[in-house]
Amino acid sequence: MSLFNELKRRNVFRVGFAYAVVGWLVVQVADLALENFGAPGWVMKTLLLFVLIGFVLSLFIAWAYELTPDGIKRAEDVDPNLSVTHATGRKLDRLVIIVLLLAVGLLLFERFWVKPAGEPAAITGQTAQTPAAVSPAPALDSASKVAEDSTVATDNEPSVAVLPFVNMSSDPEQEYFSDGISEEILNVLTRIPNLKVAARTSSFQFKGKNLDIADIGRQLQVNHLLEGSVRKAGNTLRITAQLVETDSGFHLWSETFDRTPEDVFAIQDEIAAAIAMELRTLLTGDLGTTSTPIDMQAYELYLKGRGLVARRREAALFEGIDVLKSAIEIETQYAPAMATLAKAYAVLPWFSEKIPAGQARKLARDWASKTLELDPENIEALAVLAIVYGEVDLNFSGALELLEKAVQLGPANVAANNFLGDLYARTGNLTQALKYESRAAELDPLGPINLTDLANVYLLSGEYDMVIQLANRALSLDPAFGHAYQHLVNAYFIQGDADQLALTVQRVESTADDLIVWVDGMRIALEFARGNHTRAKTILQQRVAMAQSNQLYATTVAYEAAQIGEFDTAGKMLLKAYSEKDGTWIFPIWVRGPEQAPDSASWQEFWRQPGVRELAEIRRRNGLSPYSPTFGSGAKP
Question: What average pLDDT score do residues 443-453 get?
Answer without folding.
Answer: 89
